[in-house]
Amino acid sequence: MTESLALVVPTRNDHADLPRLLREAAGTKAVSEIVVVDDGSDPPLKERALRRAARGLPVTLLREEVSRGAGGARNRGLEAVSASHLLYFDGDDRLSPEIGPLWADLAGRDYDFCIFRHADSRMLWRGWAQPHADEALWAASGLSATALSGPVSEAVSARLAQAANYPWNKIYRTAFLRENGIRCSEIPVHNDIALHWESFDAARTVLASGRIGALHIVRPGGGRLTNQTGEARLAVFESLDVLARRLLPDRPLALPFLRFVGYLLGWLRENIVPELHPRLEALSARFFARHVGPDFYARIAMEDPVLARDILIHLAMGDAA
Q1: Which of 153, 28, 167, 34 is closest to 102 using CA atoms?
Q2: Quick one: CA dihedral 118, 120, 123, 127, positive or negative?
Q3: 205-218 pLDDT, tens per residue?
Q4: What's the fold here for domain 5-216?
């Protein structure tokens, strides 16, 4: 099969940003197919306008009359892709000029997915820079800041799995996702966490590119999923429970996953309304009580005492709540 790259874009009421993204895709000389899933936009997207913005690239427009959320839209987009590889992307983010050279680097390589560095609009004062936490993981893995590395070792893969759980910092082999039944969850937010961890768990060959392939745009306020602070955030425990049953206690990603969960719970506490803190603490304690038994906890205490301490703190806070 000839190598080709599809851009899969879930979108809802993003009429202003989406045409710009399609123009960028056409300019990369890497993307050969675009699948846009209109997740209940009002008014609906118009295929003619999208084709005009894509400047000759084939565009498939799918529509959900009732919104399924970004996860459901990505899943439907996966079904429609004909290209050998795909890149999930959000309509309000930006493709980097490096995505073309990155795709060229991958030509002829055998891989399940390639994770690449990304920039964040909150860091633009430093240029197109990756957030500090992800950059630290990259450096600790001994990976190049520019070149293509891999296949990476199991240890490096486990470290990279703790990077931002975004859907748009990886180029996937389409058949890898389909054959392994890897999909986004369809919870309101955090629906890309399942895609991320199941991919790292199932992959046999992971590559890592130091090129910055995307710019994540964060705008304060408004109705974007990034800015949600309410009860929808707590639905993430549905996804975490499913992943815990898959990864804990014996998979290589078990401890990296729990470290990520600890980070996520701290992030949630800072970003949801204070009225929800007692529920968050109770759900957190229930998660660890359900998935970390005495034998597993003893192993965690031996291998990562800081993680073991944090688990005890979550259990205690849940009792207090």
Answers
A1: 28
A2: positive
A3: 999 999 999 999 88
A4: Spore Coat Polysaccharide Biosynthesis Protein SpsA; Chain A (3.90.550)
